[in-house]
Amino acid sequence: FTGSYGTLGILTELTFRVYPIPSASATVVLVGEPEKIATATKTLLASALTQTAVDLLSTKLVNQLGLAQGMGLMVRFQSVTESVKDQSSRLLSVGEKLGLKGTIYNDDNEQLWQFLSEKIWNAPQKPVITCKIGVSPIAAVSTLTQLEHITSAQGMGLIHGVSGLGLLQLDVTVTAQTIMEMRQYCESKNGFLTILEAPATIKEQLDVWGYNGNALEIMRLLKQQFDPKNILSSNRFVGGIWLKKILHTQHTKKITTTTTSPNFPTQDSVKLDFSESLKENPNSGFDTTHHPKQ
After folding, report:
1. What tens digit of pLDDT does each residue of 231-274 get?
2. Between the CA of residue 68 and those of 60, 63, 97, 112, 254, what are the distances in Å?
3. Which residues are 173's β-sheet partners?
4. CA dist., res. 121 & res. 130, Å (int)
C-alpha cells in the first residue's frame, strides 16, 4: 500500500529485520554558498564513499541548528572506526578545497541528528505550512535556493541528497500564490509539491495534492477493488478518491493488472479485472471535493 496514504488498507502486523548498531559513527557538515554545496554533493555521490545519510539543508535550517551561515550539506558515516575516520576526513578535504566551512561531529553526532529531527520533522509549537516535495536530486540545491528567494529567506527546508525527497516549512503568512510558484518550480524539475499541513484558508484556495498525471482512473478502480465500501480515508486522497459517485462513460473500459496480497485467500498471483460499462449520467453527483486533514 506504499503511496496510498491509508486509502487501500491497514497494517495490523509488522515484522522488522534489525541490524547491529555500527561500532562507530560520525557526521560531516559542510556550509557555504549554494553553488559550492552543489559541487560537493555531486562529488560525494560520484565517489566510493559509503555514507548512510545525505541531507541538504536550507540556510534558515542551518541557522536554526546553530551550525553556521549558508546552505548546508550534512553527511553521516557509520562503520568500523578506521573507515569512519578516513571517509569523514576525505569529505572534509573536499569541502576545504571548495572553500566551505567543514566540521566533523563524532561523540555528539547523535544529538545533532536528533536536533535536526526536532526542527524539521516534529510539529512546531506555532502553526506552519508543511509541504512534502520531490525533485530531481541534481536540482535539490537550486530548489532550496528558489525556496529562499520566493519566501524572502523565511522558508525552511530539507532535501535528501539521493532521492530528492524532502520537507518544506513555510510561515502561515505565505500566500497560496507563493505555494503555487514553489509547486510549479518543483514540477519544472520533474517533481511535485504536496501540502501536508496548512490553515483551512490556504487549502480552500488550491489543490493540496497537486497531482497532474494520468493515473486517476486506475487509482479509483484500485480503490474500488480493495475498499468497495469506502471505509479507509474516505474522499481524502488525490482527485477526491474515493469519489462519492463514479462518473461512468458509455463505452466499456477494461483495465487488468496483477498483484499479490495477504487479503486474498492465497498468496498466488491474483488478477484484478476492472470493467465499467454504465451509461454516462450528467447528474450523477460526481464529487471532486477534497477533504485533507486539518
Report:
1. 888 777 887 764 443 333 333 344 444 434 444 333 333 344 43
2. 10, 6, 18, 14, 57
3. none
4. 10
Looking up cell 547491529 gives 20
Grid coordinates representing 127? 502553526
φ, ψ (nearest 5 deg) of residue 178: -65, -40
Q: How far apart are CA 131 and CA 138, in angstroms?
A: 20
| CB-based contacts of 57, cutoff 8 Å, min separation 6 | 65, 71, 72, 73, 74, 116, 144, 157, 158
Q: What angle do CA 148, 101, 152 make, to 5 degrees?
A: 10
Identity of the amino acid at 43? T
pTM: 0.76
Tens of pLDDT along 156-183?
999 999 999 999 999 988 999 999 999 9
Structural contact between residues 24 and 84, judged by C-beta atoms closer than 8 angstroms: yes
